[in-house]
């Protein structure tokens, strides 16, 4: 059985006409948002954006529920999510509420 942090991967879709602005915003993520992610157990967090708007998110955490709940309690996260919500297609609620982890089917150590 695997030990160490859980690897979490999720998908969202950025509106095609908002992709350039989405990239710009993520080139300058607020320092307090970065700190909040680290403090709540989001490690090795990456976002990948495909040309068609498919967004692939990946992070590692020791406790997914605690990481999500920790960020939900952060005021900076509420502000960030409110600003980011307009970038996504077919989203009910805040973007971080749309995280549905994909099932891992293979991993090479």
UniProtKB/TrEMBL annotation:
Domain of life: Bacteria
BP terms from Gene Ontology: rhamnose catabolic process
UniProt xrefs under Gene3D superfamilies: 3.30.70.100
Pfam families found in the cross-reference section: rhaM
GO molecular function annotation: racemase and epimerase activity, acting on carbohydrates and derivatives
SUPFAM superfamilies registered for this protein in UniProt: Dimeric alpha+beta barrel
Family annotation (PANTHER family): L-RHAMNOSE MUTAROTASE
Name under which the protein is recorded: L-rhamnose 1-epimerase
Organism, scientific name: Prauserella flavalba
């Amino acid at each position: 059985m695997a030990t160490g942090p859980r690897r979490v991967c999720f998908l969202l879709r950025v509106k095609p006409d908002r992709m350039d602005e989405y990239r710009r915003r993520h080139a300058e993520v607020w320092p307090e948002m970065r700190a909040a992610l680290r403090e709540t157990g989001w490690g090795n967090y990456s976002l990948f954006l495909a040309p068609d708007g498919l967004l692939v998110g990946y992070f590692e955490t020791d406790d997914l529920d605690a990481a999500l709940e920790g960020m939900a309690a952060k005021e900076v996260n509420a502000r960030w999510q409110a600003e980011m919500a307009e970038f996504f297609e077919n989203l009910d609620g805040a973007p971080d509420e749309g995280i549905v982890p994909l099932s891992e089917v293979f991993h090479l150590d």
